[in-house]
Design a protein that fits this description.
mainly alpha, 8 helices, 69% helix
Length: 217
């Protein structure tokens, strides 16, 4: 891991703040829509970054390529319907990051075409590139099917009841396994992440293509 330079830090800042804040806001907002007011009572249905940011998780996103915010507490017993509500809440964060990634990708290409200032502003290009990539990273990592990540909250519903002991084991030891893989065996994670990122890039480019066609870029 290496520290970003001061200019890089400020260019990464919008993507980091928006990516983490909007991710957690989406979890909180969807949970309230499905009947659980716990996030609202804890002040999480807000776009104020201070309500969501975790200092260590934010710094790691700057210097390590992955990070996290304060998890939104959800009482799944209050969700109606419970299972579909839980799945919707789990996918809300990555869906928001994917939407942000698409928006920043479109803005990046518009800036590269000189549509904002009549010329290509390097600082703006790098800021938008960081924001696009950071949000894509947040999508990919959160889809990893290990707790406490969102991907596991969805994947567990695909497992048969006979694997309940496996689910319980992963709830207890999954976070340690995840950090071990990040630190000691990142190539194992990339067996999952590489095809995920390839699919995400396909989606981002596919959604953006009609916009580029309309703009003539």
């Amino acid at each position: 891991m290496s520290l970003p330079t001061l200019p890089e830090f400020f260019m990464m800042l919008p993507g980091v703040l928006m990516g983490l804040t909007f991710h957690e806001f989406a979890h909180a907002w969807v949970a309230t829509r499905f009947g659980d007011d716990t996030p609202r009572l804890m002040g999480r249905v807000t776009l104020n970054p201070m309500a969501h940011l975790d200092i260590l998780g934010t710094l790691l996103l700057f210097i390590g390529g992955f990070g996290w915010a304060k998890p939104v507490q959800v009482n799944t017993s209050r969700l109606r319907p419970r299972v579909w509500g839980d799945i919707a809440v789990s996918l809300a964060g990555v869906t928001m990051n994917l939407l942000l990634s698409i928006i920043f990708f479109i803005l990046l290409n518009m800036a590269a075409a000189g549509l904002f200032f009549g010329y290509r502003n390097l600082q703006l290009l790098l800021t938008l590139q960081f924001a696009y990539r950071i949000n894509l990273i947040l999508v990919g990592f959160n889809l990893i099917p290990l707790p406490p990540l969102d991907g596991f909250h969805v994947a567990r519903y695909l497992l048969p009841p006979s694997m309940n002991q496996v689910v319980s084991f992963l709830y207890q030891w999954g976070p340690y396994l995840f950090f071990f893989l990040v630190i000691a065996a990142p190539q194992v994670l990339h067996l999952f992440l590489d095809p995920v990122y390839a699919g995400l890039l396909f989606v981002v480019r596919g959604v953006s293509a009609p916009v580029f066609w309309a703009l003539g870029i």
